[in-house]
Amino acid sequence: LGHCSLESTLPGVVPVNFFSMRKKLKNINKASGEIKIACTYSVSFEEDKNIRWASRWDYILESMPHTHIQWFSIMNSLVIVLFLSGMVAMIMLWTLHNDIARYNQMDSTEDAQGEFGWKLVHGDIFCPPRKGMLVSVFLGSGMQILITTFVTLFFACLGFLSPANQGALMTCAVVLWVLLGTPAGYAATKFYKSFGGEKWKTNVLLTSFLCSGIVFADFFIMNLILLGEGSSVAIPFGTLVVILALWFCISVTLTFIGAYFSFKKNAIDHQVQTNEIPRQILEQSFYIKPLPGIIVGGILPFDCIFIQVFFILNSIWSQQMFYMFGFLFMVFIILVITCSEATILLCYFHLCAEDYHWQWRSFLTSDFTAVYFLIYAIYYLFSKLQITGTASTILYFGYTMIMVLIFFLFTGTIVFFVKVD
């Protein structure tokens, strides 16, 4: 009934919607019986030998309409970083300088009784936190995620992970996560020992299975839903068995090796004598209490990344190619700096209020960025997507919770290591 000749100047692209064409042909005469369509097409490939191999995908980035938004996001994030850096510098160069100068002038015991602020809690600052086992487990898992994220983004920026191969990025991340069990076990045991813990085997087992087990259980349930719906993107059972084998045989073994060498070494020397009886914490003002500080502490880091969160969600749920790894890597570095500086500021204010419970508060301050991430994901679902059906909604929230947990561990680990240093 019809003949079409298609030509395209883009490599491998045929700009024809055959389903739409078939629908139009059927509308011509539904009673005409069988419709035969003979289609031919030709594709012309343009080769530019001056393009470097590492820059072969740059035309995608240049053709994207939202590139200017990325630069605006980067500039906005840099302004936030400069603001926080100025605040930290002011505290370090002015407030602390004056405090130390005043404390150095106190020679007599009578003068020492006039101490106030962070100087009063120097003997309690390194008291073991409540649930120290859980803190160390989170830090070990977060260290594993932090290094995995950094190396994966670095390889992506160098062009080793092609956006044409959609599974390359995930494969690289999974392999790196498996091989980085040693830093996870080492960091978890190192902090657990500094907290006075002695059950290092229990610590390493929780580091190996707690957070990873939650992620795998969530992922397994989501995969069952996909299988029940007959989706072609469901992961085969054999692939899940391979992932379990890599987890149990390689990752867990490397975690035990890192924990063993860490436990054999001395604990972290804080160079401060810790009081046997901790000081009583006085009644705090409302803005110094834990919850308000934690809520405020996650606002600035999330403001630095929410543009990237939008494009990442688009690439996952709206089938858009994500190639802006350079922007993503810059935002990654900015996020590390912003989380660190914001938490340092809030921690200093808390110590000045004679509240020395900084471990969990520091961990949760930047972790609240993950809560804002979840809130934005819910907003994105109702404003940008048209998901119908219970199964699709469960899949969206299931995969979102995996990302939120990973982000939770990632941001908390950043600030904790900065605070300890």
UniProtKB/TrEMBL annotation:
The keyword Aminoacyl-tRNA synthetase does not apply. The keyword Membrane applies. Its main location: membrane. It holds the Pfam family EMP70. InterPro entries: EMP70. Keywords: Membrane, Signal, Transmembrane, Transmembrane helix. GO terms for cellular component: cytoplasm; membrane. The chain crosses the membrane at residues 71-96, 134-161, 167-192, 204-227, 233-261, 294-317, 323-351, 363-382, 394-418. It is found in: Membrane. It is a multi-pass membrane protein. GO terms for biological process: protein localization to membrane. It comes from the Eukaryota. Belongs to the nonaspanin (TM9SF) (TC 9.A.2) family. PANTHER family: TRANSMEMBRANE 9 SUPERFAMILY MEMBER 2 (PTHR10766:SF111), TRANSMEMBRANE 9 SUPERFAMILY PROTEIN (PTHR10766). This is Transmembrane 9 superfamily member. It comes from Propithecus coquereli (Coquerel's sifaka).
